[in-house]
Amino acid sequence: MSVAVPSAAASLAPLDVAASRAQFPALSREFSGRQAVFFDGPAGSQVPERVIDAVSHYYRTMNANHGGVFATSRESDAMLDEARRAVADLLGTPDPDTVAIGGNMTTLTFGLSRALGKTWKPGDEVIVTRLDHDANVTPWVLAARDAGAAVHHVSIRQEDCTLDLEDLRAKLSSRTRLVAVGCASNSVGTINPVADICRWAREAGALTFLDAVHYAPHGLVDVSRWGCDFLACSAYKFFGPHVGVLWGRRQLLEELPAYKLRPVPNTIPDRWMTGTQNHEGIAGVRAAVEYLAELGMVSGHSAGTPSRRAALQGAFARIEQYERELVTRLLAGLREIAGVRIWGIKDPSRLAERVPTVAVTHDRLSAQTVAERLAERGIFVWHGNYYALSLSEALGREPEGMVRIGLLHYNTVEEVDRLLDALRRLS
Fold first, then answer.
1. Are 131 and 119 in contact (CB under 8 A)?
2. Which fold has domain 55-289?
3. Which residues contact residue 245 at a Cβ distance below 8 angstroms, ignoring those fewer than 6 apart?
4. Domains of the chain, residue spans
5. Is the pTM of this model over 0.90?
6. Chain segment 358-400, per-residue pLDDT in tens
7. CATH code for the part of the protein at 17-47+319-424
8. 125: nearest Cα among 182, 171, 183
9. Are 21 and 46 in contact (CB under 8 A)?
């Protein structure tokens, strides 16, 4: 795929939000006579029309299992190969064979943790954090338990819900075998300095696993620049179907003791994509990446040179710029509402350290009550701990949790203002 994208020196054209929204059928849904407001993206984004069409097109034209010699199977396999190439561009790797697609991030992580755990022994150590979704905690805790390895939990700084990086570095040693950390918190939006963390782990002789599920819809993933060993994300968070993605360094994916059926070839990605895959969903993943790449295209330029990866770079530059404007407005408005507390980074000068996912609590109303009152007004938010259980416990928010407001690039200033107005009216 070749598209025209902004050069490094060119000024960045703003995101055309109206044109983006027009591609998402769900955003036209009405609730009690008004358009619904979807701030539930951290649990799963809405999808553009092309994703729906790609799923339907697969069923209509090439629905077949993998590896046949007939037309529909060959067409299906060609689509699967192209989908992995698209995901490779999204993740920043030149090697699409290092991309495995499966049911969801949690399932893929459990499979990898089982394989990695077979290489650990008593005396080895694993590092996880209290900022992460439990899918990047419990799989490693269980694998370590089975191997007799020790687990260390990195603390957080409660005042801004960031990782205690000094604590992380203090826990690294020659016994560390794996550091598992999220790129961004799915609860409070904190972005972690993953390139630094990967470098520190590498210097200690440890591997790194990054959970990019919550980061992927907001920022450009770059496994090559970050220097990680493994990374997982979920397509249904970046405008695709319910499908998970796992990337790993080729040598590791080739050598680890994968659990697979006989006589599946011992090659990448066959040894990690166990069983018949969700082919129609994978077709939708390809369409989701193409949608994102299109956001980075620039009209009026001659086509033919820049790559899909370059288009994605332009797309996420636009997305980050627009989402920064949205979260700035949201945080400023929330600070003015009596009884509402913002958890996490709220300093306007530090917005580059967070994605536009904001957790709040109300001093008189429970998180569930706030979510219910907003839902009555057609504003969809989540409440609870969203599987970021360790963080919720560390903040003293169990069992109630918090209210999570998740902004995406298809949200608008008007929707933010509508939410703020609804919060002011709570009683």
1. no
2. Aspartate Aminotransferase; domain 2 (3.40.640)
3. 87, 91, 99, 100, 101, 102, 105, 108, 232, 233, 234, 235, 285
4. 17-47+319-424, 55-289
5. yes
6. 999 999 999 999 999 999 999 999 999 999 999 999 999 999 9
7. 3.90.1150.10
8. 171
9. no
